Amino acid sequence: MTENNNTPQNKKSTRDSMGTWIVIGVIIGAAMGGVFDSVAIGVAVGIALGVAMGALVQQQRKQE
Predict the structure, then answer these.
(1) 8: helix, coil or strand?
(2) What's the whole-model pTM score?
């Protein structure tokens, strides 16, 4: 059998990874926003960080 790296399971795990990082970013951003009295800005920053981390993880997985 040959191994195909573009299986639907691989694509699903990539999407799950991005979603996981976005959720982590939102949680951290909301917590930081609560500390600094600006939850909306904290969540926005958290989403941005989550997307950035998710993209880095996806890029690292592609190189492997």
Answers:
(1) helix
(2) 0.71
